[in-house]
Amino acid sequence: MERKVKETIFEYTMITLAAVLLVGGVYFFKFPNHFSFGGVTGMAVVFSAVTPFSAGTINFVINMALLGLGFASLGRDFGLKTVYVSVLISLGLSGLEEFFPLSKPLTNEPVLELIFAIVLPALSSAILFNIGASGGGTDIVALFLKKHSTVNIGTALFLVDLMITVAACIIFDVQTGLFSFCGLMAKSLVIDTTIENINLCKYFTIVCDDPEPVCDFIHEELMRSATIFQAEGTYSHNEKYVILTVMKRGQAVQLRNFIKRNQPDAFLMITNSSEIIGKGFRGLN
Fold first, then answer.
1. pLDDT digits over 92-125, tens only?
2. Which of 75, 86, 143, 259 is the most exposed place for a label (fewest CB within 10 A)?
3. How far apart are CA 129 and CA 198, in angstroms?
4. Is there a contact between 140 and 134 (Cβ–Cβ < 8 Å)?
5. What whole-number distance in Å separates Cα of residue 171 and Cα of residue 278?
6. Which residues neighbour 134 within 8 Å (Cβ) at sequence distance 6 or greater?
7. Eight-state DSSP code of residue 28
8. Whether 84 contacts 2, CB under 8 Å
9. 3-class DSSP state for residue 208?
10. What is the C-alpha to C-alpha distance for residues 62 and 274, in angstroms, rounded to an integer?
């Protein structure tokens, strides 16, 4: 029970951090420059240019409408985390508009601001995806389409993002539109790269003569486990042992240094992997 409470506190702390990153990236860098590369915030930027309402207000209204859609049509499939994220982001953007109004971009460097407009929300999305949370907004639309239609969700959402980006070209100017297209193309790449780096682990294949010291170090110092089996060298036909184990990056350095000091003749292969599923790493869900 205590462990479950700690996990819940950690998850909601990370969700709050992700929401803060997204709100900061959107409000300080996306809204003032009219960058519109999809999502609810992109819609808000476009609609704010053709209506008397601010981007923060429009974002709040759209998110609340989508929350209503989620409750009405998705029922139990509609998670508490999604509600928390949507409300936090909407209130955060509205609050910043109230207390820190911006009439122009922070700097005169649109490329620099585009980088922050991409990286901060993408990092936020990566954190949310990594802990199994939804960012609300168009994620709710995706859940709705998944339940009530056979439409390809990825294609549908991309087309919506593309239309929002094209609208930015028409409503604002070519430069803003081109920046928005760059953001649209870079967004997914940054999210995927960030998730991969968050989950990055080192997969060890160790071929050695004496596995006991290595396994003891893995168990007692690194608090990990390993799999071991016997093998035979094809050239010398000497008996060998193969140890398979997976480590976080900091532990991987310790294990590599230990083997270099204590088993210098061992054959060591280290592979990067961001998809380790099992006890001590990621769950099957």
1. 998 998 888 888 898 999 999 999 999 998 888 8
2. 75
3. 11
4. yes
5. 50
6. 79, 81, 82, 85, 128, 140, 143
7. I
8. no
9. strand
10. 35
